[in-house]
Automatic annotation (TrEMBL):
Signal peptide: none annotated. This is ABC-2 type transport system ATP-binding protein. Its main location: membrane. The keyword Transport applies. Residues 296-313 have a biased composition (Low complexity). It is a peripheral membrane protein. The keyword Cell membrane does not apply. PANTHER family: ABC TRANSPORTER ATP-BINDING PROTEIN (PTHR42711). One of its GO terms (biological process) is response to antibiotic. Residues 290-321 are annotated as: Disordered. Residues 4-227 form the ABC transporter domain. It is found in: Cell membrane.
Length: 321
């Protein structure tokens, strides 16, 4: 059963194309990670699915109906990227206030326990640390025993221990049959929780696959070296020359170095380092990289699928530079 669906959903903010014909189905019982760099369109997609914004074109559905229908919304729990809590209310009071909106809320003690907040029940939210406030904001999404929870960067600002507490709570909800859609900048976070990851870049779905398959794409490395002349090398997804150094982006740095040696290329000052998610996305969206982020893709053009989508299925991008 599909709980949330985007069907060719496009959203513009003035000239900015935030989402570009996105298709997404979230089925009952799934835990889906939405991964992408800043400005990719993750929050916009979430906002469409929960009915806070409407698509410019295309459709979105929640439980098979309009996301703005209160009956549908009552069955979801949401933690937006930024939340405000009334600073003078105690943690327990905030939980009680939100609980009062639901027919069968999770008991206060149980909820606070699950999210590691028991010791803070009597503290005013204004006096909590940023991480404690964030945990409370996420906990509130679960109060009403939702069927579907949507969490926008739930662990931002949390230390390692708090992040693990939160991950455990999300896993427990999922183990009990709950459905989760969460956004993150970090593959490690998605990996810790989800089997399925949907990669968004420049408003498009670049990949919708298992974490392992996606890791092969975003696990791009930068091999940089000084060399006069480089032959065409297999597995290189992008090449740059800056200040006399060549930078090669590849998903298999070991193989690339072997190929350089086998080809007898005279090189010096070799460096291999991981790329940031942003760099990896630039590499896999090379076809679109000439367009300014989130703005210049022609809504009506019959643009080809980004290379990553096709190559993920094969486990490795094969797009030449
Ligand atoms: N209310 C708005 N008005 C104008 N532009 C907006 C608005 N909301 C989002 N955008 C733009 O739409 C694009 C997608 O933004 P969105 O917040 O959905 O990305 P995101 O993937 O959630 O980013 P982040 O990881 O930084 O939160 C960006 O270019 C952003 O500047």
């Amino acid at each position: 059963m599909i709980l949330a669906r985007a069907d060719q959903a496009t959203r513009r903010y003035g000239d900015v194309l935030a989402l570009d014909r996105v298709d997404l189905d979230v089925r009952a019982g799934e835990l889906v990670g939405l991964l992408g760099p800043n400005g990719a369109g993750k929050s916009t997609l979430m906002n469409l699915l929960v009915g806070l914004r409407r698509p410019t074109s295309g459709r979105v559905e929640l439980f098979g109906g309009d996301p703005r229908d209160p009956a549908s919304r009552r069955q979801i729990g949401v933690t937006p990227q930024e939340t405000g809590l009334p600073g003078t209310l105690r943690v327990g009071e905030v939980v009680d206030f939100v609980s009062a909106h639901y027919p069968d809320p999770v008991p206060r003690g149980e909820l606070l326990e699950r999210f590691g907040l028991t010791a803070h029940a009597r503290r005013q939210t204004g006096g909590l640390s940023g991480g404690q406030r964030r945990r409370l904001a996420v906990a509130l999404a679960f109060v009403g025993r939702p069927r579907l929870v949507l969490l926008d960067e739930p662990t931002t600002g949390l230390d390692v221990e708090a992040r693990h507490t939160l991950w455990d709570a999300i896993r427990a909800f999922h183990d009990d049959g709950g459905t989760v859609l969460l956004t993150s900048h970090y593959l490690e976070e998605v990996e810790a929780l989800a089997r399925r990851v949907v990669v968004i870049g420049q408003g498009r779905v670049l990949a919708d696959d298992t974490v392992d398959a996606v890791r092969a794409v975003v696990g791009v490395r930068r091999v940089s070296l000084v060399a006069d002349d480089l032959p065409t090398l297999p597995g290189v997804v992008r090449t740059e020359r800056i200040d006399g150094r060549s930078h090669l982006l590849t998903t298999d740095a070991d193989q690339l170095v072997r190929d350089l040696v086998t080809a007898g290329v005279p090189f010096a000052d070799l460096e291999v380092r991981p790329t940031s998610l942003e760099e990896a996305f630039l590499a896999i969206t090379a076809e679109h990289a000439s367009a300014p982020t989130g703005s210049a893709t022609d809504d009506t053009s019959a643009a080809p699928r980004p290379p990553a989508t096709a190559s993920v299925a094969g486990g490795r991008p094969t797009t030449p530079a």
